[in-house]
Design a protein that fits this description.
The complex is a heterodimer of chains A (362) and B (842). Chain A has 2 domains: 143 residues, Carbamoyl-phosphate synthase small subunit, N-terminal domain (Glucose Oxidase, domain 1, 3-Layer(bba) Sandwich), CATH 3.50.30.20; 209 residues, Class I glutamine amidotransferase (GATase) domain (Rossmann fold). In chain A, a hairpin with a 4-residue loop joins strand 20 and strand 21. In chain A, 57% of the residues are buried. Chain A is built from 10 helices and 21 strands. In chain A, 25% of the residues lie in helices and 29% in strands. The chains are: A alpha/beta (362), B alpha/beta (842).
Amino acid sequence: MLGKRYLILDDGSSFAGEAFGDLSNATGELVVNTNLSNYQEALTDPSYHNQIITFVQPSIGNIGINPKSYESIMTSAKGIVVNEAENISFSHLKNMSLDSFLKERHIPGICNIDTRQIQKYVRKYQIKKASIVNSNDEHAFDQLQAAVLSNQQIRSVATSKPYLVPGTGITVVVVDLGLRESIIRQLSKLNCNIIVVPWNINFADIKNLDPGGIVISSGPGSPDEIDPIVIKNILAIQKELPLLGIGLGHELISIANGAKVSRMNFGTHGSSHPVLKIITNEIVYPNQATDYAVNPETIDSSKLIITYVDLINGTIQGIRSRDYPTFSVQFFPERINDLDDTLDIFDEFIESIEAHRRSINE
Amino acid sequence: MNDIKNILIIGGGSSNIGHEGEQDAAAFQAMLSWSRIGIKTLLIDDNPYSIMFSEIPKNNLFIKKITLENVEAIIQSENIDAITPIYGQKNALRIIKNLNKKGVLHDHNIKIIGLNADNINLFGGIKNNTEKMAKNSLLAGRLLENDIPILKTNVVSNFDELRNSINEMVFPIAAKAIKASKYGRRHIFQNIEQLNNDIYDLFQQSKDNKVALEREVSGYKEIGIVAIRDIDGTKMVISSLEDMNAVGLNSTDSVVFAPAQTLNDAQLHIIRAISFRTMDCLGIKGVCHIQFALNSNNNECFVIKVNPFFNSQTAIAEKATGYPLARVVASILLNVPISDIKLPPRFHKLTSILQPISDHVTVKMPVWPFDYLPNAINKLGSKAKSTGSSIGIGRNVEGAFMNALRSSQPSPKDVLPSYSDLTEDELINELIHPTDIQILILFEAVNRGYSTSDLSELTKIDEFFFVIISNILKQIKKVKNNPLNPSVLLNGSKFGFGAGMFCHYWNATNSKINRIAIENNIYKTYKMIEPTGGEFVEKIDSFYGSFEYESDTSQLSNHSALVIGKGRNHLGPNIAADVYTAEMLIHLHKLGLKTIILNNNPNSVSLIPSISDKQYIEPVQLGDILDIVKLEKPEYIFVPGNRHYLIRELNKLSNTKIVVLPPDQKKGSWKSSKADFSFDFLVSKDSINLITSVGFSSQDGNSHKNIEKQTDYFIPYKNKSLNFNHLLDNAILEIKKLELTGLIQVVFSLNEKGQATVSGVSPLRITETLFLNLATHINWIAILMKMYTGHFNIGEVEKLISNVNFNDKIIVMQTKFPFNSLEISNGIKNRSLEIGAEILYK
């Protein structure tokens, strides 16, 4: 029988539900994911590090855990909040349901929560932090208030050693700030020879690998907490090599070029927002998972061009440098297939590498 | 598109299997939004059960058979700016295609909207011509050119051709002899050896020596996508729809889940991307339903159907998400980009451009005609047989599933029929060859302990659905074993179990169950059916029940009317009843009441959001009604006359006026079952007014003039040898014997000498009420609403009646039957077996 658990919020409110997954207590930033089909991807996406994910999808676990749906082999989320948890496994050994996966990864879950109520509540009262606990007493709320979440997030999720994903095409260095495997999948489809490097690598070491271009990956947390070496690297890279930033990478490229990034009142975690591609006037619905946005007023229009805008909250979703082959997007352009409407960003990146090569040779 | 001043809609014609009120509901909403910006809607249709007929100005309505000639005649006489096929099925596509081909549209400078004019020739292909279809129709060609995976058909006429095409084929292959002397059966071949061995026989069977070969995909998952695309090429998925049954069983006959439940993110994005590419390459500007076959093991998928119009799948997507699909598409048709569409204030201003997400699950359950047609073959296959459906919405899969299942069952008691008496062999046979009782068979099999994976293997139904059934059965067991236990009551209610089930297993009355609920603080809350998943504040008026803490709604008004909808459609006057209900809502609202509809038919016109002030999509069962009554405290409840159990129980409520409408047909009084003609009256407490005479005839030689077989109606009935004044006196005498009010029909029969005598008196039937509206140009349902809410004015009605003039025309309503669709060769054309009707003038 399921045990009673509580989801407590930093404004002192509490919601009763039932335990599933790991039985430990957890505290994290509370975010709401509105995608209807990616619980496993979200759980394994390092961008969700330190976060407790509330799923809008009413029933979670329907398809168990699938070996092809990992965004990383690690799990980063602190906990999950769901309405209905289905305990189903379709793996060959029938042993890997969402519940057993969470237990194995020591991630607590709470189910039978009215997640619609949570979504509305979080937006109304701008909740930031929450805990999943066994008892909703004063002590638990004190702990929640006192909890300081690690700001060393990238150290926890990103690789500390470089590794190679061989390919026959252009060499691309991916700076790992909390990489989603989809980025590698897409670059692989384009035959890239991929070298994933740690976030704190020196620019000289990157250059020694003789890449055609650089990708600064997505990752968790605030860009302001990040070691200045990443910004320094970006400034050096963009002068010499084509550069693509995604998510956190986009935020850092913006900062390197003089813009400021601030935390949004409500993060966007889902695929329902229309994003306008300004140059073609095209509207796409990419997957977004962000709590930060580049402040439009701080964009130096002599340096940067805004390329994508979220039509719902007006946030900048993409920029391009006027001077260098540098561009970035806030959303995740990599879906798992090669037919997607936002995928041309990777094609554009490869083209810019080829163009850059030609310009050097001339 | 500022030059469009009017739009001609090609209607859908008589309802039939796979065609209920869904296109009417969409057309109605389009008409409303077009009229707001000064665009006139014109309609050609001959379906008397169309909500459009009473709402569209008479000058804009063409009640004619939907043929090329009749549409062309309208074009010649009216100054039409635009024409659209998307509210009228394949027939409408075919007509517009031919008009385009003939140059009529070009000559009159008429725009086709909903589809790109250059692509209309891709649709409405030639019917029943296997060979031409097989030779890769134009549509297939276009899709292939754009790398859209489809099931290509190769036609071969000898072994050489077979050898040449075999390289591009993937086994298993389905082969069928073209123009076979006998009905050509599909043969499945697993490999080239089998095919080589048997293809000679197939060549022999074909008159042309030709065999069509196609990749065999039965057993793949069948997934639907409902999406829209605008003038700028912006595309959005409204909902994914997952058939519980695999490819091979018609989607209309399958349980459908919205959104898809067993697909992973990658699979959903593959079919989403292919859907978008399909709409792009077909130049669709409006709505599109695309059906896929998906192999979930390797993500291979094929487009198997493209429907660029409103249909029952688009209706499910709209009901499931709360996205204002019909309104948005009405604007897209006028070239308004999705980002610029203005919605009514109840929607958040960004709703049209947000890709819809649901924090609930919707399940569609098919409804069958076989109770009425014991001789029909109830085996399910590629041809649709269900006459209607009901949907259930819930905060979890089990709840949605049980709500839908309860709504689809004939029992008013919320208890599922048991098939425990089937032998093992019978059960397995039913599992492999599903019939109309498939769902209950699956319950029985899980109950007997078959493993979910074995069942999945046997039925090709994803194991997930058996897990859901197993969860439900475990919960039912808990209900059985724990009488009057409050936590079981709560958990069972969350799984969509009706109050009737607790009453049954706990041998308790409704009020006893209610008391346990109140004492333990268990109550139904209502969640809004809105498309943002709680991200934005919406004020949409549609709700479903849950048993969670927070409710999204409160009492609408202390001056409201709750109208109990018809629910599922089977055979008989169902669609007419739904239109009747919609009319009631429209006119109750006009009388100053706040209107609330309870219904669960996704194709219903009575659930059109702008027709009522509030909509509940819930089972039309006693417990669910009482929950709504508890919250809304309506002044009036309108209950359909055929729901005797409900009427009896609801009459126990105090403080609420119960009005039985549409009326109870059994309240009549009959001396004979013979019928030749009738008089229709309006009867109030202190007045009786003749409206018109109605003649009856039969479609299959009914020498006994049995009223059940009198399925054609005509107004007025003329017979010079009869003394109508005398008959009128007789009729009034008969009416006075009964305590009936409302629309009353006195039926007469003629004897051998041609003399008329009264056969019976009864409330006017639903279908004939709509017919009467059309014939007299008076909305009799509006008058009934006035009568039952204290707004009746006999003087006004007498004036209306005195103005009725048939202009020497006879208006005829002919009943339609589903026998062809159900492959019944000698169906008896009884009133109770009707599926629709057509109107014509003589």
